[in-house]
Amino acid sequence: MEIIKNNSWLMLFVLFTCFSLKSHVSFGADTISANQSLSGDQTIVSKGGVFAFGFFNPAPGKSSNYYIGMWYNKVSERTIVWVANREQPVSDRFSSVLRIHYGNLVLFNESKLPIWSTNWTATSGRSVDAVLLNEGNLVLRDLSNNLSEPLWQSFDHPAHTWIPGMKLTFNKRNNVSQLLTSWKNKENPAPGLFSLELAPDGSNQYVILWNRSEQYWRSGPWDDNAKIFSLVPEMTLNYIYNFSYVSNENESYFTYSVKDSTYTSRFIMDVSGQVKQMNWLPTNSWFLFWSQPRQQCEVYAFCGQFSTCNEQTERFCSCLKGFQQKSVSDWNLEDFSGGCVRKTPLQCENNSLANGKSDQFFQYINMNLPKHPQSVAVGGIRECETHCLNNCSCTAYAYKDNACSIWVGSFVGLQQLQGGGDTIYIKLAASEFESPKNNKGVVIGSVVGSVAVVALIGLIMLVYLRRRKTATVTTKTVEGSLVAFAYKDLQTATKNFSEKLGGGGFGSVFKGVLPNSSLIAVKKLESWSQGEKQFRTEVSTIGNIQHVNLVRLLGFCSEGTSRLLVYDFMPNGSLDSHLFTEKDSDFLDWKTRYQIALGTARGLAYLHEKCRDCIIHCDIKPENILLDAEFCPKVSDFGLAKLVGREFSRVLTTMRGTRGYLAPEWISGVAITAKADVYSYGMMLFEFVSGRRNSHESEDGKVKFFPSWAAKQIVEGSNLISLLDPRLEGNADEEELARLCNVACWCIQDDETHRPSMGQVVQILEGVLDVTLPPIPRALQVMVDDHEHVVFFTESSSSQSSLSKSNNSTASAQAKSTTLSRSS
């Protein structure tokens, strides 16, 4: 009898336990039913295992706040894509619960108060549940009608992430836009100041707004033929997405899908105020592929009030003189929106300073001025200053083009430029200028200093006038082999710049003849601010380097505002005029093309590996490869070049170069290495093979991208002769063609660590190294084989020990298994 009683208690315990477990979601389920709830560390996971949903802490160990949200389940780095209770976190996830309540999905906090709900108008008697779909959409559905539209879905309520399949819609019936809204900072998902939305004016473009009021970026209208937004040319680099834009009488929206379902990609409205495209790499990290605006300081009010933004500093933001950070903790989280506050009150703001000294102005030069100034009608800069000084609310003034502008109260958007720009005067308390020394010492010091300055200026003017007189009289050789040309001599040599050879973004090139009958090419830089920077860069970069495959700089001219560069004349012009020509006389045979490819690689290898500083050219393309009388290639146009000290591996710089040849890291805005040149070189090699631009219109009127098709042909082992320029009529060395194609495909790998160096490229093209079959770059990939080769250099074709990997292998294993050795 006792045994039966004990068994009865055991059965009751088991039944109670089962009932208790049933009231909570099992790990791995994708649905929350009416009799289930979500709490603590429990999650639901979409059927395909792509997304998970549950409680999370965005700053473990730093914050006690928890949110209910969605993240990638198969991505090793916790990446949140959607948050329900962005503005109302909970502090105890075990006492909080998410469950179906009267037809809605409702989140109750630890005090059992509802703080978030799907909030649709539920009708009595309706049975509903919530399911997490594999595309990342949380759906509330009516169980009595499986074919009906969702009662509610998270896709209609985006947070800061835009994933494939999601629509960002403008509803024309109620004039309501769906927004992507940034987090407040990287540890707080509350809505921030920056948002992306479809413009409500019907212009078929997206805009980014600050505080839903100030627009500082737009995509440009949608071009349905090119399938891009007109001001986002980077979209032409897309080979893995399908984009579509829909506009009808009810709504307008843009959406996208990924051609390869194994590819993980997302767009986010970042805390930086930039919209970014992020791709998950096999190296277990997110890769920034694209961002807009490109420059951080283009984001309106990014640094907050009374601060300045500088692209050349690592942190971008700094307080103006006389101001300090409003919130140090926010700045440490890279949330600069609070800006800066004044350290010392102005004299007019402090009645206790009845006999205090008058406020003064601190000058900032080379600035991009804040928006929204007030115009004041005055007679000159002194009256402009007096007007601001007498107005207690005036905090700054500027005088430009005989016009006075003042800023009343706080201002945002002040940006430090490297050259050019305007001058602004910031009002500060007099104490910000006082010296700790006594006034007598200040007076004496000022007098002595003034006399010294006047004497120094006189001496400088005397030296300048003597040098200018000499410079205008004759051309002379300066340090090294460079010649400082007089402007009038170059004007004579070029017949007053009458024979134009070509031009670019920074100037035009003219043909000239020196008195000794030597032919020269004179590059006349245009645009004072940019031209000067361009001038200094090019002279300092190539003035002291010599290589058979680098264009030789003979000299320069620097007189007044004139900046000119003098080069050897290249009788055969630039490579593009021969590659893409329709003239038979300019047509290049295969042997010449291969030698030009090899010579160009040698020139780049010299820049990257043989100079004292690594020189990254930054703009490799056929237009910048010049050809001498024997068609020997010369890498030219170093105006965009970037020098990197040997102690550094990469450099952070502004975006430069030419669309179609830009490496992904350029577009993403991250620090670059010499591998950016390798990518551009690889893109150019495809044009060596095809004899046409990589992006071109086919006979059926469609725009095709040659590298995408060529990479597939290369990997599949197809007949590479089919890739050749038809004008060659198949006349090419097949071994050289295979070598060139494989190298091109390796050079344009998405991960720069998988690209060869230019020195290795030279050895491959010379036949010293063998190259194995490359994988199709992810950016070009439409379909891949079951295995991809990861070794691109081997000892020789007879002793290859090519390694391969499955698609699930990581790229870190790729890099470790890559080998490089000489042929026997």
From TrEMBL:
<dbReference type="InterPro" id="IPR008271">
    <property type="entry name" value="Ser/Thr_kinase_AS"/>
</dbReference>
<dbReference type="InterPro" id="IPR003609">
    <property type="entry name" value="Pan_app"/>
</dbReference>
<keyword id="KW-0723">Serine/threonine-protein kinase</keyword>
<feature type="domain" description="Protein kinase">
    <location>
        <begin position="495"/>
        <end position="769"/>
    </location>
</feature>
<keyword id="KW-1133">Transmembrane helix</keyword>
<feature type="domain" description="Bulb-type lectin">
    <location>
        <begin position="29"/>
        <end position="153"/>
    </location>
</feature>
<dbReference type="Pfam" id="PF08276">
    <property type="entry name" value="PAN_2"/>
</dbReference>
<feature type="compositionally biased region" description="Low complexity">
    <location>
        <begin position="797"/>
        <end position="812"/>
    </location>
</feature>
<protein>
    <recommendedName>
        <fullName>Receptor-like serine/threonine-protein kinase</fullName>
        <ecNumber>2.7.11.1</ecNumber>
    </recommendedName>
</protein>
<dbReference type="InterPro" id="IPR011009">
    <property type="entry name" value="Kinase-like_dom_sf"/>
</dbReference>
<feature type="transmembrane region" description="Helical">
    <location>
        <begin position="442"/>
        <end position="465"/>
    </location>
</feature>
<keyword id="KW-0547">Nucleotide-binding</keyword>
<feature type="compositionally biased region" description="Polar residues">
    <location>
        <begin position="813"/>
        <end position="824"/>
    </location>
</feature>
<keyword id="KW-0067">ATP-binding</keyword>
<keyword id="KW-0418">Kinase</keyword>
<dbReference type="Pfam" id="PF00069">
    <property type="entry name" value="Pkinase"/>
</dbReference>
<dbReference type="GO" id="GO:0016020">
    <property type="term" value="C:membrane"/>
</dbReference>
<dbReference type="Pfam" id="PF01453">
    <property type="entry name" value="B_lectin"/>
</dbReference>
<feature type="signal peptide">
    <location>
        <begin position="1"/>
        <end position="28"/>
    </location>
</feature>
<keyword id="KW-0732">Signal</keyword>
<dbReference type="InterPro" id="IPR017441">
    <property type="entry name" value="Protein_kinase_ATP_BS"/>
</dbReference>
<comment type="similarity">
    <text>Belongs to the protein kinase superfamily. Ser/Thr protein kinase family.</text>
</comment>
<dbReference type="GO" id="GO:0005524">
    <property type="term" value="F:ATP binding"/>
</dbReference>
<feature type="region of interest" description="Disordered">
    <location>
        <begin position="797"/>
        <end position="824"/>
    </location>
</feature>
<dbReference type="InterPro" id="IPR001480">
    <property type="entry name" value="Bulb-type_lectin_dom"/>
</dbReference>
<dbReference type="InterPro" id="IPR024171">
    <property type="entry name" value="SRK-like_kinase"/>
</dbReference>
<dbReference type="Pfam" id="PF00954">
    <property type="entry name" value="S_locus_glycop"/>
</dbReference>
<dbReference type="GO" id="GO:0048544">
    <property type="term" value="P:recognition of pollen"/>
</dbReference>
<keyword id="KW-0808">Transferase</keyword>
<keyword id="KW-0812">Transmembrane</keyword>
<feature type="domain" description="Apple">
    <location>
        <begin position="348"/>
        <end position="430"/>
    </location>
</feature>
<dbReference type="InterPro" id="IPR036426">
    <property type="entry name" value="Bulb-type_lectin_dom_sf"/>
</dbReference>
<keyword id="KW-0472">Membrane</keyword>
<feature type="binding site">
    <location>
        <position position="524"/>
    </location>
    <ligand>
        <name>ATP</name>
    </ligand>
</feature>
<dbReference type="InterPro" id="IPR000719">
    <property type="entry name" value="Prot_kinase_dom"/>
</dbReference>
<keyword id="KW-1015">Disulfide bond</keyword>
<dbReference type="GO" id="GO:0004674">
    <property type="term" value="F:protein serine/threonine kinase activity"/>
</dbReference>
<dbReference type="InterPro" id="IPR000858">
    <property type="entry name" value="S_locus_glycoprot_dom"/>
</dbReference>
<keyword id="KW-0325">Glycoprotein</keyword>
